[in-house]
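Researcher: Before we compare anything, I want clean individual predictions. No alignment, no superposition, just each chain on its own. First chain goes here; please echo the sequence and then give the structure tokens.
Model: Echoing the first chain and its structure:
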Amino acid sequence: MGPRLPLYHAGRARAGRHDALPEPAPDSTQPDRLELVGDPNFIGLRNFVGFFQLPASWRVLYVTLLFLLWDVVVCFGVGLAVALALNQRIRFRGFFRAAVLIPWTVTAVVAG
């Protein structure tokens, strides 16, 4: 096995001396350090016009709407089927209801 490397660089602050730590570099994402470049002006719908002039923009909208419709239909259909199935008088109905509801509630509690 090779030589052990020290955990901290020898030039770093010793225990209890936090004033020797280097200052962090200025970060442009900090709100107090943001600076505008140029004069801000309202451009209206110019970005939208530019987007719709791109050849791929209509394909992007088509795929997005297709995904939206497919997702809504599938989620609604599966949800309705599960709800109708759990409303029937079947054996272990409480277990199946809990199996469906527990992941939903745990996610809501964890996200919180």
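Researcher: Okay. Second chain, same rules.
Model: Second chain and its structure:
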Amino acid sequence: MNSGVHRRNLGVGHLALHSGAYVMACRTEEHVPVDVLVIAEYYESGVVNTYRVWLRYELFRSRLSEAEFQASEANLVDFIKARGNTKPHLADLM
């Protein structure tokens, strides 16, 4: 039963990577799936970066004061530092 979907057992449910997504989530031409944690780290980093862009956008729109912007940045840094042991990939974003 191969309908173009690669399924990987994660212990609780599964991860299905469909066609193009499967190709993008591969390390080599042999289609060896990337570790799911690597993908999660990539997206977590993206979320942090997107949040920071949104903060700056709100600052430019004058919906955040400079003090509110700085406080939000400081809260984000504190949030990342508090998770440093379990999310070391986010340390580069501080």
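Researcher: What stands out in the second chain?
Model: The CA atoms of residues 4 and 19 lie 6 Å apart. Additionally, The chain has two domains: 1-34, 35-94.
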